[in-house]
Specification:
By secondary structure, this protein is an alpha/beta fold. The chain contains 13 helices and 25 strands.
Length: 496
């Protein structure tokens, strides 16, 4: 069977890369399965895409926001119809199990309907002027062309978080999807087109970070950048964008802690730990990579955690009964293996997993065993650095105050969870945990689109996806209307 070839989307046309080069999108559960062939774009492609987006902005910004929102609403309806098709294609290119890819598409559906409502809520403010016969107000304005660089772990949900608010605000977009999972972004943008999005409003440039991503960041015609990825790359994005004074929204790494107190519902905490640590094969920025357990229940909790982790079925996410899919590529397997080796050298105790799985039906994929380390101290690298795989560390603590201290002792601050029946501790944790998200009696994963999403410290730079995204994709304009028919000088004529 011949491999389907995809092109860049520029100004409403599907065009091959100016480089003439392509790359293959490989199924991580079966490396012999080529999902598609995509353009390996370069700066010349970015130039064309930005020019197309700039041309489209002239008319798109004048479309009333409620009308822009109607396109998003239709997109949501179409996504509902295509949910199963897109989910299966996503599992094939990314690997996570089918129930999770259905959830990924559902998140894009939720985002479409939520942001569609914002088309009638792009509120400004009116305020009294200090002068007579003068009207004062502020309004939101679009930025222009925005560049969007998205990761592979949520290949439709995260692009929707960026595209939909940018579009309803009146911006045009150039998006570079992750090279491991471009098809899901293509499916999302095709749905926007089918819903009535005009040519050039969204442009896709596929390819690799240095060749296609960096030119988007540095392009003088791009007015803002939204990036989701590693903290290391995010730092470079921010530095390069600063040269042109463009705002950047960064959503980056995490080393998320679930705290389990002695009074917790232990079965519930175990459910949360398993889902948080091994859902999406641990490949979430919100994944539970540290479990902090109070010493009085540590032995019982760890024993049950290991027993349940060993029962998780690893395999192709399209097959029934699979709990954990593959890691997205061989590089991620190398990273998980490296950190397992580091943990052992540091003195952590490997209780299960710790190695790639290559036997039988798993031989042609990139699979890693669900891994649990105990005997971990807060100073070990395995407890401080992001692995982005199905690897979890258990740290024991004595007091609640110590747990908060350990949870906050890292460079990241994305998601946290506390399992307890003590309402006082719950509210103390909400106040004291250094994170953008805190869950009480729920795992560290499971954000909803109508709340702000993002973190502190090396997780982000203060901007948020979700409900607060419009603050990034718009700029404020103050407007004064003087109907006094005479010169009035603020701060001067009203001074007495």
């Amino acid at each position: 069977m011949s491999t389907k070839v995809y092109h860049n989307l520029i100004g409403g046309e599907w065009l091959p890369s100016r480089s003439g080069k392509t790359f293959q999108n490989i199924n991580p559960a079966d490396n012999s399965d080529v999902v598609g062939e995509f353009p390996a774009s370069n700066a010349a492609d970015v130039d064309l895409a930005v020019a197309a987006a700039k041309k489209a902005f002239a008319s798109w910004r004048l479309v009333p926001a409620p009308k822009r929102a109607e396109i998003l609403y239709r997109t949501g309806e179409l996504l509902k119809e295509r949910k199963e098709e897109y989910a299966r294609q996503m599992t094939r290119e990314m690997g996570k199990v089918l129930s999770e890819t259905r959830g990924d598409v559902q998140e894009a559906i939720d985002e479409a309907f939520y942001v569609a409502g914002e088309g009638r809520r792009l509120f400004g403010k009116t305020t009294p002027s200090e002068l007579q016969n003068k009207f004062a107000m502020s309004v939101r304005m679009p930025l222009g062309v925005v560049g969007l660089i998205t990761p592979w772990n949520f290949p439709m949900a995260i692009p929707s978080w960026k595209l939909f608010p940018a579009l309803v605000a009146g911006n045009t977009c150039v998006i570079k999807p992750a090279e491991d999972t471009p098809l899901s972004t293509y499916n999302l943008v095709q749905t926007l087109i089918d819903a009535g999005l005009p040519p050039g409003v969204v442009n896709i440039v596929a390819g690799f970070g240095p060749d296609a991503g960096a030119p988007i960041v540095e392009h003088p015609g791009v007015r803002a950048i939204s990036f989701t990825g590693s903290s290391e790359i995010g730092s470079l994005v921010a530095q390069r964008a600063a040269a042109n004074f463009k705002p950047v929204s960064l959503e980056m790494g995490g080393k998320n802690a679930q705290i389990v107190m002695e009074d917790a519902n232990l079965d519930l905490a175990l459910d949360g730990a398993l889902w948080g640590a091994f859902g999406t094969t641990g490949q979430r920025c919100t994944a539970t990579s540290r479990i902090l357990v109070q010493k009085g229940i540590a032995d019982k909790f760890i024993g049950q955690l290991v027993e349940r982790a060993q029962k998780l079925k690893v395999g192709n996410g399209l097959e029934a009964g699979i709990d954990v899919g593959p890691q997205v590529n061989a590089q991620q397997i190398e990273t998980s293996t490296k950190y397992a080796e580091i943990a052992l050298k540091e003195g952590a105790k490997l209780l299960t997993g710790g190695e790639a799985l290559t036997a039988g039906a798993l031989a042609n994929g990139t699979f890693f065993a669900p891994t649990v380390f105990a005997g971990v101290s807060a100073k070990m690298r395995i407890a401080r650095e992001e692995v982005f795989g199905p690897v979890v560390s258990v740290i024991e603590f004595d007091t609640f105050e110590q747990a908060i201290e350990v949870a906050n002792s890292i460079d990241y601050g994305l998601s946290t969870a506390l399992y307890t029946r003590d309402v006082n501790r719950a509210f103390t944790a909400m106040r004291d945990l250094e994170a953008g998200i805190t869950y009480i009696n729920a795992p560290t994963i499971g954000a909803e689109v109508h709340l702000p999403f993002g973190g502190v410290k090396q997780t982000g730079n203060g901007h948020r996806e979700g409900s607060e995204a419009l603050d990034f994709y718009t700029t404020w304009k103050a407007v004064y209307v003087d109907y006094s028919d005479k010169l009035q000088r603020a701060q001067i004529d009203n001074a007495e």
